[in-house]
Design goal:
By secondary structure, this protein is an alpha/beta fold. The protein has three domains: about 210 residues, LarA, C-terminal domain (2-enoyl-CoA Hydratase, Chain A, domain 1, Alpha-Beta Complex); about 190 residues, 3-Layer(aba) Sandwich (Rossmann fold); about 45 residues, no CATH class. The protein has 20 helices and 21 strands. It has a seven-stranded mixed β-sheet with strand order 1-4-20-16-17-18-19, sandwiched between helices. The protein has a six-stranded mixed β-sheet with strand order 7-6-5-10-11-14, with helices on both faces. The protein has a two-stranded antiparallel sheet with strand order 2-3. The protein starts with 5 loop residues before the first strand and ends with a strand.
Length: about 500
């Protein structure tokens, strides 16, 4: 059964509610009258994902069938975006492995001479060999990895980039291909096929033009137009349902008033563990868990047509309508995001997930009013992955103590993080995020910072919150007391319950 997202207004009978809090969750009683936005649940899945894949490839949108498109192709570039990677990892095999195998079977039948499988990671960290095998499947990995035909993109290696018109640089496997097939797995709006392609397989300068401070939205369209005019692109979107937690954490995928005795016992046990366990143990509790993702649809064909159909589906499935904006918006980061897969959640990632990802999940009008307050639940532990977060640790320790002003950071520090040879080496050879990655996260939160009069972190390391330019509170009641200076003592409060949810703000009727 499918259940759409909905809005609950709390009263005296409402139990404590789950609030995401980074490496864990909090059980929190909300003030009476709080509007709680629940995401959709257990959406209808296709009965046979393999059949859906074959049908999409055979009857694409705005394109000839893939079998026809492959005829006469000598060089094929199979691009797989990784930024929409479900987190935590999917239970069982990755659906991308299945799609890749079906495409490669068609390519073999068409006698394609050369096939390259490219992970479009952009300025994010490269995948390890074991991660590539998990994503692409054992057969694809065995056939391509050791021959150097399965690899992650490197935005800094100019020798492996091809320059198209207007200075747009792309991975040479894409620039020299007769056909590019872009495989995108998504469960959220914004993780669209074209956007992942333009950010994922371009050189550093081209990628940063789309990710820097206040980028022009037209830049992304221009880059995509240059790519598609230089090489034909066949898009494939696999649209996933919201993940359903499995094992001991399955209570997280239920609505609190529907919990059975075993769910309440599991929730209590998790809360105890999160209270007394060491940080690494707490992180492993969630990082090691899996979610079951079903396939809602498979769309293939032209990028515009595929993106439009996927956006239409996700908008209908994830939108929750509310009337007007709130004074206070409450949220918290997920245990794992696309920026900290297999790594500790550092304060920059936590801030990004709340203030860019959750704040930006709306249909044009933010869920909280201008001058309102955001309250975020997260520990903001000053911990960074020694392997992945080299630049982020330096940004937090050296840049933020001097200034949190994004414009000043751009003018004074951006060039250093863009060109530092150690960061480049770590990104190219050690699987670290690119040197510009922490600036990407910082720039992305600026719309929320400008929009809100205050941002308060509950349960956070006070020093970390202060370094980010925010305030900390011990409890929700304390946070609301702090916020009262901006929103009064009877604010309209709204909680995003375990995003993703797309907020559709409408005006009150007369």
């Amino acid at each position: 059964m499918s259940r759409p997202g909905f809005l609950l207004e709390t009263d005296e009978r409402t139990p404590e509610l789950l609030v995401p809090a980074g490496p864990g969750v909090r059980m929190q009683r909300m003030p009476r009258g709080t509007e709680v936005l629940y995401p959709s649940e257990a959406l209808d899945r296709v009965p046979d994902s393999l059949e859906a894949i074959d049908k999409a490839l055979a009857t694409p949108l705005g394109s000839a069938p893939l079998r026809t498109r492959l005829a006469g192709v000598r060089r094929l570039a199979l691009v797989v975006t990784d930024s929409a990677r479900p987190a935590p990892a999917m239970a069982g095999s990755d659906i991308r492995a299945t799609v890749l195998e079906r495409i490669l079977e068609l390519a073999a039948t068409a006698r394609v001479d050369e096939v390259t499988v490219l992970l479009a990671n952009g300025l994010r960290r490269k995948m390890s060999g074991s991660e590539l095998q998990q994503l692409t499947g054992e057969r694809v990995h065995r056939s391509f990895f050791h021959d150097g035909k399965l690899f992650s993109h490197d935005a800094t290696q100019t020798r492996s980039l091809t320059t198209l018109a207007d200075g747009v640089s792309v991975n040479e496997a894409v620039g020299q291909a007769d056909l590019v097939i872009n495989l995108n797995v998504t469960g959220e709006l914004g993780h669209t096929n074209g956007r992942q392609l333009t950010r994922g397989i371009t050189g550093q300068q081209t990628a940063w033009a789309q990710l820097g401070l206040d980028p022009d939205p037209a830049t992304e369209d221009r880059v995509l137009a240059e790519i598609t005019s230089a090489v034909p692109v066949f898009a494939v979107d696999v649209v996933l349902s919201p993940g359903v937690w499995t094992g001991p954490l399955r209570f997280l995928s239920k609505r609190e008033w529907e919990w059975q005795l075993q769910d309440r016992a599991a929730a209590a046990a998790v809360q105890r563990a999160l209270t007394i366990a060491p940080r690494q143990t707490r992180r492993r509790l969630f990082a090691g868990a899996t979610q079951d993702y079903g396939v809602l649809a498979v769309h293939a064909g032209g990028i515009a047509e595929v993106t439009g159909r996927t956006t239409e589906l996700l908008s209908a499935q994830q939108s929750v309508e509310v009337v007007g904006q709130s004074d206070v918006l409450i949220t918290g980061p997920a245990s794992t995001t696309e920026h900290n897969v297999d790594a500790v959640m550092n304060p920059l990632v936590a801030a990004w997930d709340c203030l860019a990802h959750s704040f930006g999940s709306h249909a044009g009008t933010p869920a909280v009013r201008p001058g309102g307050v955001m309250i975020c639940f997260a520990p903001l532990a000053q911990a960074f992955s020694a392997r992945f977060d080299t630049a982020a640790a330096d940004f937090f320790a050296e840049v933020l103590p001097e200034t949190t002003d994004a414009t000043v950071i751009r003018d004074r520090f951006e060039a250093r993080f863009a060109t530092d040879e150690w960061y480049r080496h770590q990104y190219a050879t050690q699987g670290a995020h690119h040197g510009l990655h922490p600036l990407e996260l910082w720039y992305a939160i600026q719309p929320a910072v400008r929009h809100c009069s205050d941002i308060i972190w509950v349960g956070a390391d006070r020093a970390a919150a202060a370094r980010l330019g925010f305030r900390a509170a011990s409890t929700l009641a304390d946070a609301l007391e702090i916020a009262s200076a901006q929103v009064g003592r009877t604010p309209r409060i709204r909680l995003l319950h375990t995003p993703p949810v797309r907020v559709q703000v409408t005006e009150a009727t007369a």
